[in-house]
Automatic annotation (TrEMBL):
<feature type="binding site">
    <location>
        <position position="47"/>
    </location>
    <ligand>
        <name>ATP</name>
    </ligand>
</feature>
<keyword id="KW-0819">tRNA processing</keyword>
<keyword id="KW-0548">Nucleotidyltransferase</keyword>
<dbReference type="InterPro" id="IPR010923">
    <property type="entry name" value="T(6)A37_SUA5"/>
</dbReference>
<feature type="binding site">
    <location>
        <position position="24"/>
    </location>
    <ligand>
        <name>L-threonine</name>
    </ligand>
</feature>
<dbReference type="GO" id="GO:0061710">
    <property type="term" value="F:L-threonylcarbamoyladenylate synthase"/>
</dbReference>
<keyword id="KW-0963">Cytoplasm</keyword>
<feature type="domain" description="YrdC-like">
    <location>
        <begin position="2"/>
        <end position="188"/>
    </location>
</feature>
<feature type="binding site">
    <location>
        <position position="106"/>
    </location>
    <ligand>
        <name>ATP</name>
    </ligand>
</feature>
<dbReference type="GO" id="GO:0000049">
    <property type="term" value="F:tRNA binding"/>
</dbReference>
<comment type="similarity">
    <text>Belongs to the SUA5 family.</text>
</comment>
<dbReference type="InterPro" id="IPR038385">
    <property type="entry name" value="Sua5/YwlC_C"/>
</dbReference>
<feature type="binding site">
    <location>
        <position position="184"/>
    </location>
    <ligand>
        <name>ATP</name>
    </ligand>
</feature>
<keyword id="KW-0808">Transferase</keyword>
<dbReference type="InterPro" id="IPR005145">
    <property type="entry name" value="Sua5_C"/>
</dbReference>
<dbReference type="GO" id="GO:0006450">
    <property type="term" value="P:regulation of translational fidelity"/>
</dbReference>
<feature type="binding site">
    <location>
        <position position="132"/>
    </location>
    <ligand>
        <name>ATP</name>
    </ligand>
</feature>
């Protein structure tokens, strides 16, 4: 059910949930200060209750409403990348809902770079928790139609067009003493983060029980995540993909393929999605391509992996969670 901006604001203020556009993926939003509204997110997504949620705020000045400290490193990152596809995990104010935090001592914050999302947060004077608007472990939505296909027509959806980043935000945790750590790769690369966070070292990959030293583990990062319904096979090179397609053909199984980069000399008799050799473009089109492949109702999906280079890491991360080799 499509709703207007005013209807979305009213629904959220009333304790309802609304799927909202962001530049990364559509989020299933609820008022981040309303526990009963927040619980609806978990029910609808069928998501385990211990998974923390990202709080979307309209302005960097609101960080102090949620976090007990905003270390210099985090301020620099926010200045460089907000509004944008960066989530900062900071030590939480004690009054921040445990439903949002998933019982962690930290809270995840982001100012999204989408005009409709920003209008909702600012005009509605709202902060909304919003995980991706899909069922737990299914493909993330990058259009209003994807949300409806995954969650049903009764979900209110604020349509803001297709998402132009296309994969979920980069998540960086910053502890009170300024150590930072990448928790989830995204289109803002670790190199870009390191360049801005100059003077501080990356926290070692350890867990601390001291809240002031919190270097959070990564709750909710499941190995099997972001998957289409059709079994998806990943290939490091095109030759092995072509060999597998011949084997499937011989077995009488149907398949569709997704290639990255030029498709010259590939003559496979099957439906093909050809993505350009550009990390930004592949990220933007990744989930919608996987949704389209899934809708082809074939026996197998065969996907060519991009090269293992820094600029492809976020796409490689999402693909490796969607399929198997
Ligand atoms: O791009 C995005 O980030 C999208 C859009 C809608 O903003 N949202 C999104 O939310 O991807 P979700 O729920 O799919 O991912 C939230 C993830 C959690 O699974 C967890 O890994 C991390 O964010 N997270 C949230 N709060 C955290 C916390 N306090 N400590 C550590 N990780 C946290
Ligand atoms: Mg998700």
């Amino acid at each position: 059910m499509r709703v207007s901006l005013e209807q979305a604001i009213a629904e959220l203020k009333n304790g309802g949930v609304v799927a909202i556009p962001t530049e990364t993926v559509y989020g299933l939003a609820a008022d981040a200060t309303n526990d009963s509204a927040l619980r609806k997110i978990f029910e609808i997504k069928q998501r385990p209750a211990d998974h923390p949620l990202i709080v979307h705020i309209g302005d960097v000045n609101q960080v102090s409403d949620w976090a007990t400290s905003f270390p210099e490193v985090a301020i620099k990152l926010a200045e460089a990348f907000w509004p944008g596809p960066l989530t900062l995990v900071l030590p939480a104010q004690p009054q921040v809902s445990r439903v949002v935090r998933g019982d962690e001592p930290t809270v995840a914050l982001r100012v999204p770079n989408h005009p409709v999302a920003l209008a909702l947060l600012k005009h509605g004077n709202l902060s909304v928790a919003a995980p991706s608007a899909n069922l737990f472990t299914q493909l993330s939505p990058t259009t209003a139609a994807h949300v409806e296909a995954g969650l049903g027509e009764s979900i209110p959806v604020l349509d803001g067009g297709p998402c132009n980043v296309g994969i979920e935000s980069t998540i960086v945790s910053v502890s009170a003493n300024g150590l930072w750590q990448l928790l989830r790769p995204g289109m803002i690369s670790e190199e870009e983060i390191a360049k801005v966070a100059t003077t501080h070292h990356q926290a070692p990959f350890t867990e601390s029980t001291d809240a002031s030293q919190v270097v959070p583990k990564v709750p909710g990062q499941h190995a099997l995540h972001y998957s289409p319904r059709t079994p998806l096979m990943l290939f490091k090179d095109r030759l092995s993909l072509i060999q597998e397609s011949k084997a499937l053909q011989a077995m009488g199984l149907s398949f569709a393929i997704m290639l990255i980069g030029d498709s010259d000399h590939v003559e496979l008799n099957c439906q093909t999605i050809n993505l350009p050799n550009s990390p930004d473009k592949v990220a933007e089109l990744l989930y919608s391509s996987l949704h389209d492949l899934d809708a082809m109702k074939v026996d197998r999906l065969l996907v060519e992996l991009p090269p293992v280079l820094p600029e492809w890491l976020a796409v490689l991360d999402r693909l490796s969670r969607a399929g198997y080799r």
